[in-house]
Amino acid sequence: MPGTVTVWEKDPALVGRFTTAPIPDVAKLPLAFNFPAARPYSSDKSTEDFRYWNAASTLRRAADFWAASSRPPAEWNGTAVLDVYLDRDVALQSKYDGQSLSFYHGSPVGHPEIVVYSGASPDLLCHELGHAVLDAIRPDLFDRGLLETDAFHESFGDISALLCATQLPTFCTAVLQETAGRNFWSNSSLSRVAEQFGAALRMEDPEQADTDCLRNAWNDHFYADPAGLNNTAPADEVAANPHSFSRVFTGAFFEILAGVLALKVGNQAAKAQDLQQVGCDMRDILMEALDDAPFGQNFYAAVAAAMVTASAGPGPRRGPAVQAIFQNVFVRRKIIAPAIV
Fold first, then answer.
1. By the 8 A CB rule, do 62 and 129 touch?
2. What is the DSSP annotation of 310-340?
C-alpha cells in the first residue's frame, strides 16, 4: 500500500483531473465513517479498488473541512460513526437517509454500455456528506416535507460540493486558469456539479438535469413563491420541488462567493490560496447563520438574513464591504427584501 492515493479532484467527467492525498483515516473523530473492509489500492480508475480509496479520501477530506468550521458539528446526528455503502444496488442515484450514505451504479435506459457509479464522483460524495453535516447541526430540517427546508438541504449538499472543491490547491489552480480574464461568476468546472451523473440523467429525460451537469451553481434563478410554481418545469426554469428550487439559493451563494473573491484580490490576479480562504470564510458565515435561522415556511429568507448579519463581522475578512455583497445578491435574487438591515 502506498503512502498516498491518487483520486479524482471533483468529477470523473473532468478527464485527467486528479489530486494526490494521504491515506485517509476513516475512523477519525469527531466525524467518523464505517466503510466496508478496505480494498487494496489500485490506480485503475475503472476498478472497485480505486473507487473505494477515492470515496474514502474524498469523504475524509470533506468531513475534516466541515469539522474545522467556526460552528462545527460534534458528531453525526445521533451517532459518532456514519455508515457508508459505496455500491448498494442498481440505480442512478445517491442518498443520505438519516443513518447512512448510500451510492449506487446504473445505466441510462437504453444505454447499457454506459455505467455510472455515483460514489465515484467527489461532487456526489460531498453533496451527500453535506446532507449529513446539515442534519448533524440542524436535525429539525431533515425530511420535513416543507419545500424550502427540503430545497435548502439540497442546496447545502451542492454548496458542500463547491466548497470542498475549493480546498484542493490543484483544483483551485485549474479553475482560476480556466476563468482567467473573465468574471469568476461564470460557468466553470467549479460551478458545474456532478457533470457525469447529469449527462446520464439527460439521456433518460433532458429535464432531469441542467444542460451541462446535474445542477449548475452559475445560474440566474430568482426566488418566487412556491405556491405559484408548477411541481415540474423545464431544466431552465424553477419548479416547486426540492432539487429544482434548491438552485435559487445555490446560485445566490456562488454569486456571493465570486463577489467576495473579487473584493479580496482587488486588481490582482486571484491565487489558489485566495480561493481556498474565501471557501473557508463562506463556510463559516453559513454555519454561523444556521445557528440563528429559525425553522419555518420562509427558510431561505431566514438563512439569508442571518448570513447578511454574520458577514458584517467581527472578523478580519468581514465588514461593511463584504456585507454589501451578501445584501445586494440576496436582494437581487428576491430572497430577502431590501430593508433587511
1. yes
2. HTT-SSTT-SHHHHHHHHHHHHHTTSS-GGG
Q: 183 and 96 in one domain?
A: no
Query: Is 170:9 a contact under the CB 8 Å cutoff?
Result: yes
Tell me: the pLDDT tens digits for 132-162? 999 999 999 999 989 999 999 999 999 999 9
Instruction: Encode pLDDT of 72-103 as tens digits.
Output: 999 999 999 999 999 999 999 999 999 999 99
- Residue (of 97, 127, 125, 71) closest to 246 by Cα position: 127
Strand blocks (E) in the chain: 4-8, 18-22, 32-34, 81-85, 94-96, 100-103, 105-106, 116-117, 192-193, 215-216
CATH number for the domain harbouring residue 114: 3.10.170
Domain with 85 in it:
4-141
Beta strands in 104-225 (DSSP E): 105-106, 116-117, 192-193, 215-216
Q: Is the pTM of this model over 0.90?
A: yes
